[in-house]
Amino acid sequence: MNSTTELDHCLKCSICQSACPVITSASFPGPKLLGSDALRLLKAGADAGAVLPAVEACLNCKRCELACPHGVRITRLISDVKERTVTAKKHYWRDLLLSYPGFLGKVGTIVPGLVNFFLSNKIGRKLAKKVMSLDADAVSNYASRPLSRVTSSLQAAETNRKVVYFAGCYANYIEPEIGKSLVELLGLLKIGVVVPTEHCCGMPLLANGFKAQAKKAFQKNLKALLPYLQEGCDILCTCPTCALALKQVYLEELGTDEAEVLSKFVYDASEYLVNYSDQLAGLIKPVKLHMVYHQPCHTLAQGVGQPSLTLLKLIPELKLQAVDGCCGQSGTYGFKQEKKKISEAVGKALFKEIEQCAPDLVSTDCGACTMRIKHDCHLDVKHPLSVLLQSIKTDDSLPD
Amino acid sequence: MKYDVVVIGAGLAGMTAALKSLIEGRRVVVIAAGENTLYYASGSLDLYGGKENPWAAVKRLESERPDHPYALIGTALIEESFRFLMGELETVCPYQENSGENVWVPTSLGGFRPSYLLPNGQFPAVSLKKKKVLVVGFSSYRDFNSRLVASGMVSRGCEARAIDLDLHYDKINCNSIDLAYYFDDHWPDLIKSLQETAKDVDCLAFPAVLGLNNFLDIHQNLQDALGRPVIEIPTLPPSVPGIRLSRAMLARIQQQGAEVIKGFPVISTRVSDDICLGVYIDTPGHPRYVEGDSFILATGGILGGGIVVSEKSVDEKVFGVPVEVPVNENQEYPYARCGLKANKRLQPLDKDRKVLYRNVFCAGRILGGYDPDLEHDGAGAAIATGYKAALEAGRGDS
Amino acid sequence: MISVTIKTGVLVIGGGITGAGILWDLALRGIDAVLIEQKEPAYGATGRCHGLLHGGCRYLVKDSAVAAECYRENKILQSVAKGAIENTGGYFVQVKGDDPGYVEQWLNLAGKTGIPVKEIDIQTAIKEEPLLAVQNIERVFTVPDAAVDPFDLTLMNLTGATQRGAKVFTNTRVEELIITGNQIRGAVVKDLASGESYSIHADIVVNAAGAWAASIAAKAGIRLNMKYGKGTLVVFAQRLTKRVINRLRKPGDGDIIVPAKSVCLLGTTDIPVSSPDDLDPTAAEITKMLNIGEEMFDHLSEKRILRTFAGIRPLYTGDNNNGEQNREISRGFAVINHEKDAVDGFYSIVGGKLTTYRLMAEQLVDVVAEKLGVKNPCQTAETVLPQPVAGQVKLAVEEPMLCECEQVTVQDLERACELPFCRDLHTIRKITRLGLGPCQGTFCIWRAVMLLYENQRISAAECRQLLQEFLAERGKGSCFTLWGDQLKQYELARGIYLNNFQLGDAADEI
Fold first, then answer.
1. Residue A142 gets which letter from DSSP?
2. Mean pLDDT of B364-390
3. Residues of B in contact with C505 (CB under 8 A)
4. Is A274-393 CATH 3.40.50.1860?
5. Residue C463: which of B109, B239, B335 has the nearest Cβ?
6. Under an 8 A CB cutoff, do B238 and A15 touch?
7. Closest to B162 in 3D by CA, of B133, B140, B142, B120
8. What is the predicted pLDDT for the residue at A136?
9. Which of A96, B104, B149, C158 could form a disulfide with B125 if both were Cys (CB 3.0 to 4.6 A apart)?
10. Cβ(B342)–Cβ(B349) under 8 Å?
11. ipTM greater than 0.95, yes or no?
């Protein structure tokens, strides 16, 4: 598959622009110019340097694609443009490093004390800012034990069927509680879980323009997941970006039969669990809290509706409000010094809306959104599955 | 998940149908490939007839062009559909009362075009006659020339003059959407810049870019502060008044409890004889199946994507209903009136005029027999057929 | 009423590449000259060809002398007209079923002529050019073809000439030739914009009117034997190949694809027509070409087509007229001194091809210079032409732009308007590529009109008229390929201009 057809579909109507959260930034020419216009001319030999750094400001949120009525996968075109500009990047090495959250995660969880100390330390933060152009204020702490070691003890449960859990870097290294929640919930439903050796889904690489490396990551994961596909196992993701990658992006970028098979077996964890609503409802106890649910862009982009919201609605007495909009974090984008202003401007409206709700707690599926909202709204943020599990396990309100 | 009404397409027709179905108490899902052609239109709602009385012209269609969507609906129901939609939009995107005649609206080419219902902020040209109009442009905005608009007004009996403002906005190549978002925050700058000049004129005309999110407040505040009527003139697309209408309708639909799945087209259907059971949506990974009792097909015409023309054939995309391409009637464009044929219940017909699917009802530009670009009847046809389709969907397949 | 008289040494009739090349050559030799063109520069065959700067390989089998000539000229132009040329290189591709005997003959002649041809393996070729239909390809050779922008090339010659004192009048038609006795004296011409006629007095008149050469000669009572072959071309919305790709067989329909900046062209056909104004492609021609193209390129007919157009190949048949197929008639050219027809000082230049225009100009101007007693030698092979306005494909997101598809900036338009021969939107489009991208002007023609009005180059009434002309012209360009994405694009433009801007009918009153 290549982007020729996508380019052909574009009518230059700028509808995409109306949906772009970055468009209000004066330095951002918009998805049409950076996607379909730029790629068409780059293919004809135009100098790629002209779209830097503008094209790096794309959040890869995919809202433009949902707006386009003509079927143009605009962020895919933008990722092609990013690929063509990658060698001219100003922050090449930093972006490459940030594109390997799996590697960072391993380091972080092996020596969490050290890394967390470094980043929570004023000097460390300053150093990160200076050397890496990183805004370390917003970076989350690494977990003391990665998920893969945590879950292995939970696999022996007697089960009716087996699914694969593709945890992704966030649940693996930063908030293993999400993975544990999923495994426990599935256990209650008598569904066994396998957590295979996995690598980062590769989306950070793609979003930063390192397409060749991204494709390698895609291939690696495909290879690791293929045996389970042959067994007919469904694959569950708690991270919306991982889910979108496995469902759509691998296929778009690789175009192989294996990628197509994979895409058909992948589910967002809530999309999967919503089919067990009746069983879960029987286990859930009331929770007297006021909670805001925020739907991440990449859940929206999967076209699954709002399954997490449906699940959360099962909790009696939980006061739920849903908010809409992009938080501006986009993986590691919000950590980058030069993107800080744009990221903040994007998230502003959402944070205001959340704050106006004045909830006890925020729930969202995405790790990046979680970090951003925690940092900007100073509220506790939990994955919907963690909330769900705790409503099953506790008698009263949610502990921290 | 099974719904009472599955609306395929979220343009003016589909959203009118969804709204009416929701008000009637149905469980509704709206499925759309993306945004709609309102983003290209002027935001005012056309009926028909140009210089003629529109209702008389519509009435005549019943005998002269029985395939015209208006002829299928009938005047009374068309009027009812307009009243319904205006009521729904009253607080979120209000339109002005109309005396039953077409009005002529200024265009940014310096001319006028006929329309029927004008949104808040658009004014009929006749109200500007002999008035002193200040046409305000923005120097960084390529798509609107204040002098051209002013000269058009002068040649038609207004005392118009033009002024261009330098905005403190450093976006290169900004278009109407950029400016509308900009004015959402920076509208008070306009008051500062124009307070003095406004005293010498009767009204001020702007390109239609005065805000997207807070446009009603902005318009009111500007009128109050400048003490003059503030007019918006539709621009080259993307059309801000069109986006406002589209968003207002969508918000209303969601507020009324419809599920909206936007960004993914319907790719196939499950049918049993002449009944549609459900549709498959092309979502990433695995298609999503949606079941329903009734289906409203409002996927648009060629531009909207409901009809696909290839080198060898002309196809309706969802159900494969045959598309009629009427023989060229002195038109420069062979597909001007192409579309589906439907009966008075808006059920799609095959070539022998037999109903193809009893629980499918067509609305909007997917229907053939009219040419909105030339005849200015697109909005009216969308609203009327959307409304009618909802009524029929509610009645079921009996 | 003949009011004004212009005096010059040489009057060149025709603003195609031949006339422009002649004007440039004359100017370099210091000969005073004026060029007139009935429409805009490169209106005729020049602006309606592939834009293929031949490496010569296409003519090897038929006429290896012409092939060698092309190869030499190609190298010269690559050094003097760099701004108009993209050295893409080319492939010659043998497709299953093509005559292997032809291939061997072709290879043999390439060796003899000294044109560098090299076979490469199919896998490499497919990797470089994924559009090639892998299952159909037998052999692939690299050749020294390049892509040339015929508009830029013509405009560079005209600009260079006018910078050296030559004058160019576009939208100006020859009414009659002035002849006293046996001597040509010039021409009476008409400015089609103002409707005014005036005379241009010249010692020499050069008829470089291309497809219209016979009608110019006829004004002197001279019969030129010409044949007209219509060639239709299809323009795709994006660049589908990196290089020129030719079918390696006896030249036929639909067997070349040439990248042209951001788009590419498939061509061409060769249908005998009786008049140089018979410029309409037919649906059958297009379908046939796409089908042949599919033999070499995968899914070619599914690609978005922007427009189609046809050009007329004017072929001089000399004195024999034996009903040969057009493609067989020589692609060479002829300089005709009409002294033999009892008109002294009148010359026609006919035939030829884009790649050899410089050589044609040189040979003609040699004759003219001798007649005028000018000794200065030709300098066009060494003198670098001025840079074009638009030049190579660029991204200009940081500059104020009118056309976003082709990234035509406000400055580009203003620079084009400053050129002395730029009098209309057509010329602006050719100079800048405004409106030549996928949206075909839907958004940028509007912006250009607004800017021209703002700069007081056009009136309010002209704004309307220009937009109407544009819409009509678009309809013409796409009426034979009204399907797919481009049809949607057309509907969008139709909606904007007929519906939103009420451009269609006259009911534009209060």
1. P
2. 97
3. 374
4. yes
5. B109
6. yes
7. B133
8. 57
9. B104
10. yes
11. yes
